[in-house]
Amino acid sequence: MIWVDYLVLLVSFLLIISVLLQNSKDDIKDAFSGEKSELFKNQKSRGIEVILNRATVVLALVFVALVFVSLSINRFPLNL
User: What global pTM score does this model have?
Assistant: First the structure.
């Protein structure tokens, strides 16, 4: 493993944590009863929810970028 792989592991762990900390807008009963759930309810995110949403988006973008960097480094290694 190289340094980028360790960064991918760290970012993936942080991404999982940020997703788990977010509140769900749907009830669990809707998943089991088959009721129609509204995907985008008219609830405005405030405070920590906004920070978690933005952090999740940023971490996802960083994760994808690091995976591409890791793949390119492993595919085309620099022989110094």
Answer: 0.72
